[in-house]
Amino acid sequence: MLEPVEVAIAILHTSDKFLMQLRDNTPGIVYPGHWGLFGGHLESGETPEVALKRELWEEIGYEVRSPIKFGCYNDARVIRHVYHAPLTVELDRLNLQEGWDLGLLTPDEIDRGSAFSAKAGSVQPLGHPHQQILLDFIKSHIGHE
């Protein structure tokens, strides 16, 4: 049996919205054409926090200062180290280097499990694990910060 891969992903939020990446609609990738959280695989010897900072810089040119560990979500294939931090810049300051689109999704869109993408020209689904992570985060943090 294969060892699960480890990834570090970020819940980047404004006061009432969450930054998400619309994954490329490429067959063969995990959750093609789905909204997901930014982040990626840990490289050899990296801690999850170091990987998160590297991935956010590579994917959107965003330097996250002090991410806070939210939790760890495991299944047979993936160990997801989840962090959260405020998004401190406007969307037009981010430079999307990976993925089809990015957007700030509302709690209602996250709850519904889909959101419109201008670049895709359609409503696209959220990847189930990322939707569940955000629903858990909203339940535990909104109104508590």
Please state the structural category. Answer: alpha+beta
Q: Any idea what the shape is? A: globular
Q: What proportion of the residues form beta strands (DSSP E)?
A: 25-35%
Task: Summarize the main sheet.
Answer: 4 strands, mixed
Average predicted local confidence, pLDDT = 94
Question: What is the total number of structural domains?
Answer: 1
The level 1 CATH classification is Alpha Beta
Number of helices: 3
The CATH level-2 architecture is identified as Alpha-Beta Complex
| Integer-rounded radius of gyration | 14 Å
As for the CATH topology, it is: Nucleoside Triphosphate Pyrophosphohydrolase
Element-level helix/strand string: EEEEHEEEHEEH
> Share of helix among residues?
10-25%
Q: Separation of termini?
A: 41 Å
Descriptive report:
The mean pLDDT is 94. The chain has helices at 48-60, 107-112, 128-141, and strands at 5-13, 18-22, 35-36, 38-41, 68-74, 78-86, 101-105, 114-117, 122-125. The protein has a four-stranded mixed β-sheet, sandwiched between helices. A three-stranded antiparallel β-sheet has the order 3-2-7. A two-stranded antiparallel ribbon has the order 8-9. With 145 residues, it is α+β, with helices and mostly antiparallel strands. It starts with a strand and ends with a helix.
Architecture blueprint of SSEs:
Layout: E1 5-13, E2 18-22, E3 35-36, E4 38-41, H1 48-60, E5 68-74, E6 78-86, E7 101-105, H2 107-112, E8 114-117, E9 122-125, H3 128-141
Parallel strand pairs: 1-6
Antiparallel strand pairs: 1-4, 2-3, 2-7, 5-6, 8-9
Provide the descriptors you would attach to this structure in a database record.
single chain; 145 residues; alpha+beta; Nucleoside Triphosphate Pyrophosphohydrolase; 3-stranded antiparallel sheet; 3 helices; 9 strands; globular
